[in-house]
Amino acid sequence: MSPQRKLLLLGTFVHSKTAQHLEFLHNAAVAVDEQGKIAAIERDVADASEAKERLVKQLGWNEAEVDVTEAAEGQFFFPGFIDTHIHAPQYANAGIFGKSSLLDWLETYTFPLESSLKDLSKARRVYSRCVRRTLAHGTTTATYYATIDVAATNLLADLCLSMGQRAFVGRACMDDPEINPAYYRDADAAETLRATQQTIDHVRGIDPGFDIVSPILTPRFAPSCTREAMAGLAQLHRETSLPIQTHISENLGEIQLVQRMFPEADSYAGVYDKYGLLTHKTVLAHAVHISEAEASLIAEKKSKISHCPCSNTCLTSGPARVRWMWDKGIDVGLGTDMSGGYSPSILEAARQAALVSRHVAMGIHVPVDDDDGAAAAAAEKERVKLTVEEVLYLATRGGARCVGLEEKIGGFEVGMEWDAQLVSLSQVSDDGGLEEQDDSDGFVDVFGWESWDERLAKWLYNGDDRNTKRVWVKGRLVHRRS
Ligand SMILES: O=c1[nH]c(=O)c2nc[nH]c2[nH]1
After folding, report:
1. Fewer CB atoms near the end CB (10 Å): N or C, the chain?
2. What are the pLDDT digits (tens) for 388-397?
C-alpha cells in the first residue's frame, strides 16, 4: 500500500454532539495527518487558500504533502456509518426471505447458503461484493458474522483489510447437534474453540494491532452452542479481551427453545450470563422481547444492544423498544442484520428505526375512561418516537460506543480518526430540471429554501448510496462515486 497523504477537507461538516443534537460546522476545515487522525479543526474559513494559510502553517506541514477536498455548495461531510450487526455470507440472499420467521428462515434460506461458502471462489465473490457494497453505502465499520468455515472467514478478514473497511470479523460458532444441521456444524466444543483460534491467529498475522480488522468471538446464538462452547469462548474473552457478538430474544419460538434447552437459567440473558458471555464488550443483536429483569441485567453488565429494525420487520420478529433500552442505560447501535434485513445500508436501518419507533408508539394503549391515564399514554406515545437526530446518532456515535470505538470514530473531534463520507444531495435548478435525465445524485431533491435540519431529514428518508460520493476510513479513500 502506498504511504498515506495528509488531507485537508473544506466545507460543511455535520455530526452528532449528543443523541439529540446534530452539530453543523459551516465553512470549516479539517486537517487529517498521515496516520488518518484529525489533527486540527478550524471554523470560519473562507476558502482553500485561507485554510492552507491557517491550518497547514499552524501544523507545520508542507503544502505539497496535502491533498485538498472541497465540498461543493450543498454537500456535507458526515461520519462513516457503523453497522453493529451484519452477516457477510448472507449478502447473496439480501431480499430473499418470503414469509418465513427466524427458525424456519435459518433452515430454509440461511444455513444452506452459509455452508455453501466453504467453496472459496464463491466466498470471494460474495464477500468482495458485500464489502464493496457496504462501503458504497457509507459503512466504514462493519461487525461481521462469517460462517463456520475458517478459510472463508479468514478471506473475509483479508478482503476487509485490502479494501480498507474497518471490521470485526467473527467465525460463527455452532456445535450443538440439535439445532444445527449435520452438514453445517462444528464436531464439538473443542473444534469450535480450535477454529476460532485459527481465525484469531490469522487476523493477528495480517493486522497485528487489530488496527483495521479485529476478530470477534461469535457464539451464533444460545440454541446453536453447547454449554462447553459458550464457557470456552467466555474463557477466551477473559484471556484476550476480544469482543463478543451473539443474538438474543429475537423471536418467541426461539425464546421457548432457549427455555427448553437451558432450564438451569431463568431467562435468555441469564443463559449468557451463566456461561460468562455477558460482558462490557458483548454486542447482543435484536433484544426484541427481553424482560425488565433482562434489560436490567444487560445494563448492569454494560453489554450493548444492536437494534436491527429492518430484520425485525422482515422476519416478523417484533418491534424493539429503543427508548426503553436507553431509559435503562443501555448503549444501542444499529445493525442491518442483512439478510434477515433486506438491505446492506445503515441509512436504511436508521430510517427503519425511526419508523419502527412509531409502531412502538402506535402500540401504546390509550385508555378512554381515564383522563390522567390517557394524557400519560399520549405523552409516552410522543416520547418513544425517535427523531432524525436520534437515529443518525445510533448510526454513528451510538454504534461506536457499542463496538468500544467511541474514542476513535463516530464524530469529528481532534484526535479521532477520519472515518467519514461526503454526501451530496440533488440541487433542483430554477426550471425544476425538466430537461435533466441524470439521476446519479439520487432522489433527494433540495430546492434551496430548506434549513440544514430539513436537508438531513430529507437525506435520512429518501437518500441512498447515490448520495455517498466519497468514503474514507482512517484517512484512506476507500470508495469514490463519480
Ligand atoms: O437474524 C438472525 N440472523 C441469523 O443469521 C441468526 N442466527 C441465529 N439467530 C439469528 N438471527
Report:
1. C
2. 999 999 999 9
Q: Is the dihedral of CA 197, 333, 329, 309 positive or negative?
A: negative
How many angstroms separate the alpha carbon of residue 221 from the centre of ligand 1? 8
Pocket of ligand 1 (CB under 6 A): 87, 102, 106, 110, 220-221, 247, 250, 311, 337, 340
Ligand 1: residue of 93, 96, 102, 286 to mutate (most ligand atoms within 8 A of CB) is 102
User: Which residue is closest in CA terms to ligand 1's atom 2?
Assistant: 340
> Domain end: 376, 402, 428, which one?
402
Same domain, 393 and 458: no
* Contact partners, residue 430, CB within 8 Å, separation at least 6: none
The tally of CA atoms less than 13 A away on the side-chain side of residue 13 is 28
Omega before residue 345 within 30° of 0, cis: no
**Distance separating alpha carbons of residues 214 and 245, to the nearest angstrom:** 13
| Same-domain pairing of 134 and 18 | no
Domain range spanning residue 11?
A: 6-79+412-480
DSSP string, 190-212: HHHHHHHHHHHHHHHHHSTT-SS
ipTM: 0.98
φ/ψ of 363, rounded to 5, equals -80, -5
Helices and strands (DSSP H and E) totals, the chain = 18, 20
